[in-house]
Every structure is written in structure tokens, then in C-alpha cells.
Design goal:
By secondary structure, the protein is an alpha/beta fold. It has 2 domains: 134 residues, 3-Layer(aba) Sandwich (Rossmann fold); 136 residues, NAD(P)-binding Rossmann-like Domain (Rossmann fold, 3-Layer(aba) Sandwich), CATH 3.40.50. The chain has a 6-stranded mixed β-sheet, sandwiched between helices. Strand 1, helix 2 and strand 2 form a beta-alpha-beta unit. 44% of the residues are buried.
């Protein structure tokens, strides 16, 4: 009887962010749990702005086992944990927290892994010797730069409204590859093979002012954010002739699968999950 009682208790996980109502993470992780036979519960937590530790501690004090962290808390999560993986150390941002057996919190960053798996496995993109442009210089960008540079692109440029933020990231990763920075109004006027939009959700409502010349005949435009309708960046890309336009749902699935694997030791089938959860067309 005791064994059955223990088996009936779900391991508690959650995603924390602000805003958070739009998150599809509970659906994704429940689907992963059903696939793998794991008994978990997974909820959304509206975190208190400027007080991430309070929200995180409240969850873990109630026997929480792991957290996914989204905007705007990835940098605060970095400072919250006791230990960091190499990816998280280099990124300076944490999107996954694992409560360890001794009670310590291990922080990692699965954003870059998730993005690469979606780009390479799902979209079949080759990044070696390609020109990459990232729009935005927040926590999401910090999490994807190292994995992208590991693919040996011809060059990676970070463009941001506030130049200093882009410069800081470029300086941090300069030993890992050819990386440059610029402001949004000084993007080199050339076609890129891959353009990644990584600004915060709040900036999605701003009118995009990007040079049309950055889109070439083979450019893939990828918005790290996901939505059930085309995002402003995706609309801009279509207006200016991009033929491959993708939102970040595949990245979300892949980084979630990596988190699930780190928590539960089982790797879900993301292709099946994408077919089940993904709206047919956004563009």
C-alpha cells in the first residue's frame, strides 16, 4: 500500500514568467509525461517582477522539483541557483532549474540546444559558413550565441536598440568565433542566411524598422517567440520577400524536451508532439 501511495504522488514542475498566461509549456510537458509514462504535474506561475527569489522559493518550498524560466527572469534565475552548467555560465542566463537531492539548485540553459535541434533536425539548415543575424540582446540571445558559434558560421552579428547590450554580448563570446555587434539602425546592408528575432514580447508591438536588403533569396527568418498567429517579425519578413519564415514553437518543444530529459531521464518524441500541438500554418 505504501508503494502505491508513493507512486500516486506527482512530481511537481512549473514554468515561471511574467506574463505567463500564453504559455503552452503545461500542455507540452503533460504530453511528454503521457508519452514516457512519467507521473508529473506542471503549472504556470506568474512571477513577481523584481522578486524572482520569492516566487521560486515559494514553489520549491511546496516540494517543487524543477522550474522552466522564461521572460523576464532568466538573468535573475542565473543569480538564484547554487550551481551552473557550462552552457549557463557562458550564457549568463538560466532557463531550467533542477532541484538536486541535497537541496541545492542547479541552473542550466537549454535554449541554444533547443534552437539548434529545431534548425538542424526539423528545418534541415546547415549553419557552417553561413551569415547569421540576431535581432535583440537579452537573455534569449545570451543563451543561443555559444551553440550557434560552435557551428562555425561565416559570421554572427547581434543588432540591438541599445548598442551597449549587443557590444557586451559580442565581447563576452568573441573568443568563440567571428561575432560582431551594431545598433538596429546600423545593420550592415547585406543578405543574411539566417535572421533570428530575439527581442522581448513587449517589443513585438513596436513597428519593425529593418533594412529590407538583409533578406536574400535563401534567407530563413526565425522568430524565437511563438504565437498562434504570425508575429510582427514574421509579417515583416513575409512583406519583404522571405520564403522561409518560422516561429519559435519548434525551439520551445526541443528545449522543453531537453529540460524534461534532465528532470526525468527520458527523452520525449518532439516530432509527435509538434504534429499534435502545432497550428497548421502561421504565415
Amino acid at each position: 500500500m505504501q508503494q502505491n501511495s508513493e507512486q500516486s504522488i506527482s512530481a511537481k514542475y512549473a514554468v515561471i514568467g511574467n506574463p505567463i498566461a500564453h504559455s503552452k509549456s503545461p500542455e507540452i510537458h503533460q504530453l511528454f509525461a503521457d508519452q514516457t509514462g512519467e507521473n508529473i504535474s506542471y503549472e504556470k506561475i506568474l512571477g513577481e517582477k523584481y522578486n524572482f527569489p520569492y516566487s521560486a522559493n515559494k514553489f520549491f518550498d511546496a516540494d517543487g522539483q524543477g522550474l522552466n524560466v522564461t521572460l523576464p527572469f532568466k538573468l535573475e534565475a542565473f543569480n538564484f541557483v547554487d550551481q551552473l552548467t557550462d552552457f549557463a555560465k557562458h550564457a549568463g542566463a538560466v532557463n531550467t532549474i533542477i532541484r538536486q537531492d541535497n537541496g541545492d539548485y542547479l541552473g542550466t540553459n537549454t535554449d541554444g540546444i533547443g534552437l539548434l535541434r529545431d534548425l538542424k533536425k526539423t528545418l534541415r539548415l546547415q549553419l557552417r559558413d553561413k551569415k547569421i543575424l540576431i535581432i535583440g540582446a537579452g537573455g534569449a540571445t545570451q543563451g543561443i550565441v555559444e551553440p550557434l558559434l560552435n557551428e562555425k558560421p561565416a559570421g554572427l552579428t547581434i543588432a540591438n536598440r541599445t548598442l551597449h547590450k549587443a557590444e557586451t554580448i559580442a565581447k563576452h563570446f568573441k573568443k568563440m568565433g567571428d561575432i560582431q555587434s551594431c545598433s538596429l539602425n546600423q545593420i550592415p546592408e547585406q543578405a543574411y542566411d539566417l535572421i533570428l528575432h530575439a527581442t522581448s514580447a513587449a517589443l513585438q508591438n513596436h513597428e519593425l524598422e529593418l533594412p529590407a536588403v538583409i533578406i536574400g533569396t535563401q534567407t530563413c527568418c526565425y522568430d524565437l517567440l511563438y504565437s498562434d498567429t504570425a508575429t510582427p517579425f514574421m509579417q515583416w519578413a513575409k512583406k519583404h520577400g522571405a520564403t522561409q519564415i518560422v516561429d519559435g514553437f519548434g525551439m520551445l518543444l526541443e528545449q522543453a524536451a531537453e529540460s524534461f530529459y534532465l528532470w526525468r531521464g527520458k527523452r520525449p518524441d518532439t516530432t509527435m508532439a509538434q504534429n499534435y500541438l502545432r497550428p497548421k500554418s502561421l504565415t
